[in-house]
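Saturday, quiet lab. Running sequence design on the structure tokens for the scaffold JK sent over.
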């Protein structure tokens, strides 16, 4: 990844280089010509001021505003102290390295910002809408639901919708991390934020811009850095008492020993003040304060490149701890695109049965409904449909041509007292009844996603103790899918509320449970789990909102990848915490004992910062399989 320095960064770099060159020159001149006293001080002050004037200025401004104990304050006191005790080169060097660290940090933050900004590239700037037969370019916010928009090759798809006319291939890489383009034709659903590659398409919008996938994702990413992980809160609290504690210890170190050993001996004072200054230089907690959020930022950014959206550092932290994964069947382990296999009518024709079912389902977004509508093909006059009610986990109740129909599973038939019978065919059976009269059933089948079985295997190899499948579908279908995907356990014929109950049983206080679903009927479970993972592309808006993690390409294999990224990131976070505190602790002790001098303190401080930042950047890089 290339990164261009900003103007401010370039200026800082220039100052660092100039000050460094001057420091070397001054050191040589004062040494060769044996310059001492005030002249030596003035010569050394030149590079010191060049490299450190902004730090000094900010520190004084902060002191006036009553803000002491920040890192600029520490640097100012430490370097001015060094000047007073005659350590001129050291004073300049401390400032110099402090600035190197700051520059490094600003580059690192800029770099990860940029990777997030790349994701922001999905934001469409305009939409071409057809109004009164004319094409008008408007901002995406102005397009209404149900309007027709035109998208040419090379343009971003501005709003979610269905293709009315034309065919094309679409690149969803920015959303899903999947770089292979997908072919789309009339009737297919396109997602905003993807790129139209080859053909001109006319799309009827199904969401306003605010409700479109692209807005949801942008909102997610923009808010991600605000949600702090527990460990970040810990670092902030830690820094709050750590810095004052070190300053007080430094003061004590400067004052107490001379009081006892030689109050009138100037050399003793200088000795202990020097040791106290070492203390101050080391005390700067910047490595922690910078590297920990940067690691999370990197982990979230790295995951987004894989089409995995993690909503915040808190979600990433929780994800790294899960040991049980509960999965929904339809849309999660299976494609959720059912195909009608057969129609078994009762006293009416197959076409009539399908027509009634499709009409009743025409307002539902459930995968079952979509399959029936697709099988129907013909146009359904909206005026035929009256009141519609979805009965979650069971089906729909709808008024069609003035009569009340029920379309759904056996439980729904029992509810209305229709005399139904099961089917000898394997599949999801959708029964239809008019009032209490049974009209027959439609057999639909769903395919298991190609990576479902390997996804479960992957999770097991990551040490996930238990995988459980929950479904509202029939026992027979559930058993078949469970066997083919190798999940440890399954529960079938569950209503949405019973899915929550099953999850509660697994949330026994010890286990950390992730629930993976498409959000159609399972948003409550997503919210209740320790980590809610939603299938984003096909999933419902409710899912994207209630989930902690969104898998943009709906691939279950991304669950294991997300866990791996989160664990890697948490490892990096802890490495940085332990490493920086460890090194600082050692230098503090050596400093107090008089073994570590200012030079070691400077190298220790900046070295730790640079290493911690480099380590954080690792979180961002794509993981190899
Ligand atoms: P899953 O747990 O497999 O995602 P749901 O809880 O969404 O399934 O639905 C459970 C069952 O309820 C489905 O298998 C289907 O039989 C029935 N059902 C749900 N919604 C509908 C609908 N709109 N039309 C017909 N049947 C439905
Ligand atoms: Mg479902």
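Result came back. Writing it out in full:
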């Amino acid at each position: 990844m290339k990164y261009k320095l900003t103007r401010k960064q370039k200026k800082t770099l220039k100052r660092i280089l100039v000050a460094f060159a001057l420091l070397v020159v001054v050191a040589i001149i004062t040494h060769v010509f044996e310059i001492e006293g005030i002249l030596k001080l003035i010569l050394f002050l030149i590079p010191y001021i060049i490299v450190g004037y902004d730090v000094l200025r900010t520190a004084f401004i902060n002191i006036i505003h009553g803000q002491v104990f920040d890192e600029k304050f520490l640097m100012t006191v430490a370097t001015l102290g060094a000047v007073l005790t005659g350590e001129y080169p050291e004073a300049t060097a401390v400032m110099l390295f402090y600035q190197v660290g700051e520059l490094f940090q600003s580059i690192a933050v800029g770099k990860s910002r940029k990777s997030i900004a790349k994701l922001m590239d999905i934001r469409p700037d305009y939409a071409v809408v057809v109004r009164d037969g004319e094409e008008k370019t408007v901002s995406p916010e102005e397009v209404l639901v149900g309007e027709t928009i035109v998208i040419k090759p090379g343009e971003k798809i501005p709003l979610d919708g269905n293709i009315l006319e034309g065919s094309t291939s679409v690149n969803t890489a920015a959303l899903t991390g999947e770089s292979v383009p997908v072919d789309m034709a009339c009737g297919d659903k396109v997602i905003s934020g993807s790129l139209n590659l080859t053909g001109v398409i006319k799309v009827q919008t199904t969401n306003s811009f605010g409700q479109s996938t692209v807005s949801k994702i942008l909102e997610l990413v923009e808010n991600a850095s605000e949600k702090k992980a527990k460990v970040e809160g810990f670092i902030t609290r830690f820094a709050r008492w750590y810095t004052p504690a070190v300053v007080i210890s430094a003061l004590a170190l400067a004052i107490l020993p001379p009081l006892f050993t030689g109050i009138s001996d100037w050399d003793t004072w200088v000795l202990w003040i020097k040791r106290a200054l070492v203390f101050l230089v080391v005390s700067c907690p910047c490595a922690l304060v910078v590297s920990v959020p940067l690691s999370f930022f990197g982990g979230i950014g790295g995951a987004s490149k894989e089409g995995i959206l993690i909503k915040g550092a808190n979600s990433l932290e929780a994800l790294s701890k899960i040991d049980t994964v509960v999965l929904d069947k339809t849309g999660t382990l299976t494609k959720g695109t059912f195909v009608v296999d057969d129609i078994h009518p009762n006293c009416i024709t197959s076409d009539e049965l399908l027509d009634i079912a499709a009409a009743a389902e025409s307002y539902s977004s459930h995968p079952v409904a979509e399959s029936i509508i697709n099988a129907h093909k013909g146009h359904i006059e909206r005026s035929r449909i009256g009141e519609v009610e979805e009965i979650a986990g069971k089906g729909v109740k709808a008024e069609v041509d003035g009569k009340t129909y029920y379309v759904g599973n056996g439980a729904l038939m029992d509810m209305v007292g229709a005399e139904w019978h099961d089917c000898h065919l394997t599949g999801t059976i959708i029964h239809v009844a008019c009032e209490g009269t049974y009209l027959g059933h439609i057999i639909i089948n769903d395919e298991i996603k190609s990576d479902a079985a390997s996804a479960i295997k992957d999770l097991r190899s990551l040490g996930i103790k238990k995988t459980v499948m929950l479904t509202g579908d029939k026992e027979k279908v559930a058993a078949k899918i469970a066997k083919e995907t190798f999940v440890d356990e399954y529960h079938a014929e569950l209503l949405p509320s019973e899915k929550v109950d099953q999850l509660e049983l697994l949330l026994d206080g010890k286990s950390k449970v992730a629930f993976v679903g498409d959000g159609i009927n399972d948003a409550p479970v997503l919210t209740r789990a320790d980590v809610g993972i939603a299938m984003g592309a096909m999933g419902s808006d409710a899912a994207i909102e209630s989930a902690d993690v969104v898998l943009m390409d709906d691939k279950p294999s991304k669950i294991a990848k997300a866990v791996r990224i989160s664990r890697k990131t948490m490892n990096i976070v802890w490495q940085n915490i332990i490493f920086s505190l460890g090194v600082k602790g050692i230098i503090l002790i050596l400093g107090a004992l008089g073994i570590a001098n200012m030079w070691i303190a400077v190298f220790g401080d900046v070295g730790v910062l640079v290493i911690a930042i480099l380590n954080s950047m690792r979180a961002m890089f794509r993981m190899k399989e």
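Notes for JK: The pocket of magnesium ion (ligand 2) is lined by residues 328, 330-331, 518, 520-522 (CB under 6 Å). The domain at 125-158+160-206 is CATH 2.70.150.10 (Calcium-transporting ATPase, cytoplasmic transduction domain A). Ask whether to fix the surface positions before the next round.
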